[in-house]
Design brief:
two-stranded antiparallel ribbon, about 30% helix, 5 helices, alpha/beta, about 190 residues, 6-stranded mixed sheet
Length: about 190
């Protein structure tokens, strides 16, 4: 998605060898028009696949997931990273390690919101090592939901997340921006034509 790639080039900040900070439009401050364009693109990609629910994880996956849900006219369920007093004990859970935060969170979804009747599209902000995506897959699998595929805003293709998800049985991953490498503090995108 050219608009997203342009924003990453203009506003993204590369930290070290493997972290991209995009907090000016995705992870701290949100650009609603860009989120809407991304949601529309996810809806276009998955339009004919019978999606009836979108599943994401709090918090940065929520904005693109909501916009995709709006475009597809389906509900969005997000996995919580911490247990709340109002969240039922009857929940699907999975442990997810965050590389950037160096912590493991138990994500959870109330069993009332995900079932075997669901055809689920997974949406997340980043795909790097694949832990969040694998956690979302685990939640959907616990509910016997049918996972249609995953929509990823930014994929770091030089990390093992895509292969880990494919190895776990995911059949379709649509990434709006695929990064091949970080060179001298600059983002290099995957050349989709080759």
């Amino acid at each position: 998605m050219q608009e997203l790639e342009a924003r990453i080039q203009a506003e993204g900040r590369v930290l070290g060898d493997d972290i991209l900070k995009v907090d000016s439009f995705l992870n701290h401050q949100i650009d609603p028009k860009l989120m809407q364009a991304m949601g529309n693109e996810f809806a276009r990609i998955f339009a004919d696949q019978g999606v009836n629910k979108i599943l994401t994880v709090e918090s940065s996956g929520i904005a693109p997931a909501v916009m995709a849900g709006l475009a597809l006219d389906v509900p969005v369920v997000f996995a919580r990273k911490s247990k709340s007093r109002v969240l039922a004990d009857d929940a699907y859970t999975a442990d997810v390690y965050s590389y950037t935060k160096q912590t493991t969170n138990q994500i959870r979804i109330d069993k009332h919101f995900l079932s075997a009747a669901d055809r689920v599209l997974l949406i997340d902000d980043f795909l790097a090592n694949g832990q969040a995506l694998l956690g979302l897959m685990s939640l959907a699998n616990q509910a016997d939901a049918d996972i249609i595929g995953a929509g990823i805003v930014i994929e770091k293709s030089f990390q093992p997340g895509r292969q880990a998800a494919l190895d776990a049985g995911l059949t379709q991953i649509a990434s709006l921006a695929r990064i091949a490498d970080f060179k001298d503090g600059q983002v290099v995108f995957v050349d989709e034509d080759n």
